[in-house]
Design a protein that fits this description.
Layout (H helix, E strand, L loop, with lengths): L1 E4 L5 H13 L3 E4 L11 H4 L9 E4 L2 E4 L1 H11 L10 H29 L9 H25 L12 H13 L8 H10 L3 H6 L6
Parallel strand pairs: 1-2
Antiparallel strand pairs: 1-3, 3-4
Helix pairs in contact: 1-3, 1-6, 4-5, 4-6, 5-7, 6-7
Length: about 210
């Protein structure tokens, strides 16, 4: 059986758990990370030298990096409805997954650490304001995209891209600061909440 290493509240572990739910894929999960077994232990480092969760072990195959993991799971376990084989459709999914992992993530990292995590190392007011401003700008891009599709980020069907993007949308709504009205994002958030996988794993943590 597939083994997932990482605490269930981690946003990157939640990507994997939600993907498993969409694929009806059974798994065993072990708690690793802050508050649980430290990822600095040799047993973990042997699987991921970066000491980061999640890691999966599928038989004798070990893999880390959350977006890579969910692409693998969709490819390995009949997930073409989530990650299509047709090159143009797949590229659209990859585009939004990569955007989430780079532009969107970089924009919210400081604000999230300051406002949601209350990190003592993130107290610079100017940096917080800049992060909130950048975050809102990228969420505006997402709002425009969702208004155009009327459904999901890659088009009219739910795909693998909606898992990392959807978890970032959850983080947007759960971080306390004044936000612009983004009606298409709000409707998307409600749409995601109708999915069993999101109800199980989408709102169960902010780590």
């Amino acid at each position: 059986m597939l083994k997932i290493l990482g605490k269930a509240s981690s946003i990157n572990v939640r990507k994997v758990l939600w993907t498993c739910a969409e694929l009806n894929l059974p798994f065993d999960r072990e708690d690793w990370g802050s508050g649980f077994r430290p990822t600095s232990e040799p047993e973990f480092l042997a699987r991921n030298p970066n000491a980061m969760v999640p890691v999966i072990q599928d038989g004798d195959f070990v893999l880390w990096e959350s977006n890579t993991i969910i692409r693998y799971l969709a490819g390995q376990y009949q997930g073409q409805h989530l990650y299509p084989a047709e090159p143009k459709l797949r590229a659209r999914v990859d585009q939004w997954m990569d955007w989430q992992a780079t532009d969107l993530n970089r924009s919210w990292s400081y604000a999230f650490m300051a406002l949601a995590r209350q990190s003592p190392a993130h107290r610079d007011e100017a940096a917080i304001e800049a992060s909130c401003r950048d975050w809102a700008r990228f969420m505006g891009i997402l709002d425009q995209r969702l208004a155009a599709t009327g459904a999901y980020v890659a088009g009219d069907a739910f795909t693998l891209a909606d898992i990392p993007v959807g978890l970032s949308v959850n983080r947007w709504f759960e971080t306390p600061f004044e936000k612009p009205a983004l009606p298409a994002v709000a409707a998307y958030y409600d749409r995601l909440a109708q999915r069993d996988g999101y109800r199980q794993y989408g709102r169960n943590g902010t780590a």
